[in-house]
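re: ur msg from earlier - yeah i can do the N-carbamoyl-L-aspartate complex, just paste it... oh wait u already did. ok heres what im feeding in:
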Amino acid sequence: MTPPESTVQRLVITRPDDWHLHLRDGAMLRDVLPDTASRFGRAIVMPNLAPPVVTTAQAQAYRERILAALPAGMRFEPLMTLYLTEDTAPAEIERARASGFVHGVKLYPANATTNSQAGVADLRRCGSVLEAMQRLGLPLLVHGEVTDPDVDVFDREAVFIERHLEPLVRDFPRLRIVLEHITTTVAAQFVHAASDNIAATITAHHLLLNRNALFAGGLRPHHYCLPVLKREMHRQALVAAAISGSPKFFLGTDSAPHPKHAKESGCGCAGIYTAHAAIELYAEAFDRAGALDRLEGFSSFHGPDFYRLPRNSDTIALERIAFQVPDIIEKGGDTLVPFRSGESIAWRIAR
Ligand code: NCD
Ligand code: ZN
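and the outut:
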């Protein structure tokens, strides 16, 4: 059923936050940060740098580099994360919690995605760390995909839930978990049915595209991300979860800049850059679903409520005026191909 076309032309919402973001470092950080900081109040910053951010001291130094890269007059709060390894010590979790600026610990299954080589091959080796996180209420942020080469790429999330997430939740029932960038009906149902300790982020690109977008008229490397796009029925389940009003689902762009040459290659990198139009893309997705009235909860309330942070107190305004995305943008001395490159987006930020 097609929802009734909305007549809303302008929408004012509490300033949103991005609960899953890749900012990178150095010149790339400097050039991508304003795209996020001009839209969002805060972002959960992923720690998959090379080398990864594994200690609270490294997170503090990275946080300072982010704040130093922020253009004068812009306000933005980076919410830092640690990269979990099999060598992470419970004392590091204590330090992270005490810092006040580390808001989660990221689980990358080893070799699941970009810069995840130092991730976790066997979660059973992390018991004392997970115990400390459960005790201290520090959330575990999960890249939920198995890396077993015998598992079909499109089934990696569902198999992760069955093999790893269900046992984890049984063993650590009070551990607070965010299943990041969910992509399937299985993940949406799992989160819906789980306790209030379990939440999920959803990207704009997974709300807007299904896997056909990877092969539309030829191979489309700029639509390749991990977890990879799934079938239309899964996209519909994600839209249903996002617009459900459930506080378990919130905005996380997973905006992940890679230079054009690294994506248009014989072995192209995973990651889609959406930070240039992130909230605009979510507005378009919610509008298409006839649910603009649910955008604010998803974008601005559910995330801070789960992370036990105050909601932002200022607002942003969006208007239904289409704008054209450039074919390419220059960032960090490299060329990026932004999401919707050369095409239009139906909503823009009101100036
Ligand atoms: C991310 C990146 O490039 O850092 N890529 C992606 O496809 N999402 C890593 C990640 O979140 O998996
Ligand atoms: Zn990511």
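cool cool. The pocket of N-carbamoyl-L-aspartate (ligand 1) is lined by residues 22, 48, 113-114, 143, 225-226, 254, 256, 270-271 (CB under 6 Å). ping me if u need the other ligands too
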